[in-house]
TrEMBL record:
<dbReference type="InterPro" id="IPR029058">
    <property type="entry name" value="AB_hydrolase_fold"/>
</dbReference>
<keyword id="KW-0378">Hydrolase</keyword>
<dbReference type="InterPro" id="IPR049492">
    <property type="entry name" value="BD-FAE-like_dom"/>
</dbReference>
<dbReference type="InterPro" id="IPR050300">
    <property type="entry name" value="GDXG_lipolytic_enzyme"/>
</dbReference>
<dbReference type="GO" id="GO:0016787">
    <property type="term" value="F:hydrolase activity"/>
</dbReference>
<protein>
    <submittedName>
        <fullName>Alpha/beta hydrolase</fullName>
    </submittedName>
</protein>
<dbReference type="Pfam" id="PF20434">
    <property type="entry name" value="BD-FAE"/>
</dbReference>
<feature type="domain" description="BD-FAE-like">
    <location>
        <begin position="27"/>
        <end position="213"/>
    </location>
</feature>
Length: 265
């Protein structure tokens, strides 16, 4: 395995976990890569939604990386620019690390899900133009995997995330950062999962984004689990801080996500 730390800018860095190639085992193989955005309400980045998740993706034969993006007092769009830079870096180094440049996925948990979905809707915007070397397509994820994501700041707002992300511009940016209102044909296919019992980021966040994707004819897959609260991560003992983070039904999401990625081939 090839592991390295990549500094993107200031606070932001990526921890990479790349499976190596060998002469006697398909030396020209290229693999999909999943860039993981941990949650934390744009106040921190949670280790529970990072390396343990990456290991599961590696076991499926995918590359993985974790984006340690800037949080408060950094404000929008700094973290978004870092996510875009991370996607671009993975494509630029595709040959070096055996990455399929057309299979760069972005996975996000909670507020990290908002960050991932933000790049999904804003990747072609002018405020990211200076990150492009040739074309906006370099910044576009090929698919989004959104795990109990923060999406909406209008109907079921997670005020803490909005406050940390927008600061004094909170009311000015509230509608723009409600991502279900920004969905158009530019958004890549998406996989979402949520628990109906989530009392911190209500399941309606995923429902609103899913419905917006359907209206645009964008392929989307949504899985809802009746039990389990917020911040489940893998929903197994591997990523549990408390017993409530272990939930067998919700733990199915990782296998479902792996199959969703495989279906791109």
């Amino acid at each position: 395995m090839i592991c390295r730390e990549v500094v993107l800018s200031g606070q932001a860095k990526m921890s990479t976990y790349f499976l190596d190639n060998f002469e006697n085992l398909d030396p020209r193989r290229k693999r999909p890569v999943v860039l993981i955005c941990p949650g934390g309400g744009y106040e921190k980045t949670s280790e529970r939604e990072a390396e343990g998740v990456a290991v599961q993706l590696l076991a499926a034969g995918f590359h993985a990386a974790v984006l340690w993006y800037s949080v408060a007092p950094a404000r929008f769009p700094q973290a978004l620019r870092e996510a875009a830079a991370g996607v671009a870096w993975l494509r630029e180094h595709g040959e070096e690390f055996h990455i399929r440049e057309d299979r760069v996925f972005l996975m996000g948990f909670s507020a990290g899900g908002h960050l991932a979905a933000s790049l999904g809707v804003f990747w072609d915007q002018d405020f990211l133009a200076d990150l492009r070397k040739e074309k906006a397509r370099e910044l576009r994820p090929d698919g989004l995997l959104l795990c109990y994501p923060v999406i909406d700041f209008l109907q079921v707002p997670h005020e803490g995330s909005l406050e940390n992300l927008a600061g004094e511009r909170k009311e000015e940016l509230r509608a723009r950062l409600s991502l279900e209102t920004q969905v158009g044909p530019q958004v890549p296919p998406a996989f979402l999962w949520h628990t109906q019992a989530d009392n911190q980021v209500p399941v309606k966040n995923s429902l609103l984004f899913y419905e917006a994707l359907l209206e645009q004819g964008i392929p989307a897959e949504l899985h809802l689990f009746p039990r389990g609260g917020h911040g489940m991560a893998l929903a197994t003992a591997e990523t549990a801080r408390e017993q409530r983070h272990i939930q067998r039904e919700s733990a199915q999401w990782m296998e479902l996500a792996k199959n969703w990625i495989r279906a791109f081939d």
